[in-house]
Amino acid sequence: MENYTLGPGAVSLAWIRGDANDVDYRVDGDSNVNINYIDLRYAGWKPWTGSWTEFGIDYAMPNTTKKQDSYGGLYDADNGVMLTGEISQDMLGGYNKTVLQYANKGLAQNMVSQGGGWYDMWNYVNDATGYRVINTGLIPITEKFSINHVLTWGSADDITDYTDKTRMLSLVARGQYQFTDYVRLIGEVGGFYQKDSYNNGTSYKQAGEKYTIALGLADGPDFMSRPELRIFASYLNDSEDGKPFEDQTANNTWNFGVQVEAWW
């Protein structure tokens, strides 16, 4: 149910089922868990001129079978909640949006995995908690050139039985120059840093950057016009001296391709 007027805003409610597959292979023939999500949102309240807000509650309920309950282990997953608050503001011909989130149990890992709201059934997460802050915005520099950014800081504790805390920071900026109403040049720079601190006193760091240039074809000049066809080249680099590319032999690589993005 979407956009039912209530006061200065509107209420939306969704009931979603999303399964977690192969949770524990030792439970023969019964290792999948269906998870029900209740998603409640309130949007449209404007606390001052040029602003708008949205608030959300997601409640995840793992629905285990009797066989899984008798086995226990990962199947003893508690219900989890994720709370979201957004406030946006018209700014310089574009907008700026700040998002605050809190999540616990199997939803907590989304705060550091850049996930949207899936429930982790593959780790012991009943003590997990997490927070996330996102700032994003779009600023038109000229009539033909705009810049979009997304800055994310995430924090989560106890998202596995051996992880004490995880901290993550990422920043992506995309510039777009519109040659015509349908043809655009896109440049994107992104980077992230993540540190996992373990209960045994050790830690693991990850960091990387991606640089992309693309020629885009879209159905209009707006920054978010979709569908969009992109012909792109990307350079990826692991700055923590790992070797995730070229069959674990290189810390950097180039990707080339054609991508289509469409929204419904």
From TrEMBL:
Q: Principal localization?
A: membrane
Q: Which InterPro entries match?
A: G_neg_Bact_CarbUptk_Porin, Porin_LamB, Porin_LamB_sf
Signal peptide span: none
Keywords tagged on the record: Cell outer membrane, Ion transport, Membrane, Porin, Receptor, Transmembrane, Transmembrane beta strand, Transport
Q: Name one Pfam family in it.
A: LamB
- In which domain of life is the source organism classified? Bacteria
Gene Ontology BP term (one): polysaccharide transport
Which terms in the Gene Ontology molecular function aspect does this entry carry? carbohydrate transmembrane transporter activity; porin activity
How does it sit in the bilayer?
Multi-pass membrane protein
* Gene Ontology cellular-component terms listed: cell outer membrane; pore complex
Kindly list the places in or outside the cell where this protein is found, as annotated in its UniProt entry.
Cell outer membrane
- Protein family according to the UniProt entry: Belongs to the porin LamB (TC 1.B.3) family.
UniProt protein name: Maltoporin (Maltose/maltodextrin high-affinity receptor, phage lambda receptor protein)
Source organism: Klebsiella pneumoniae IS43
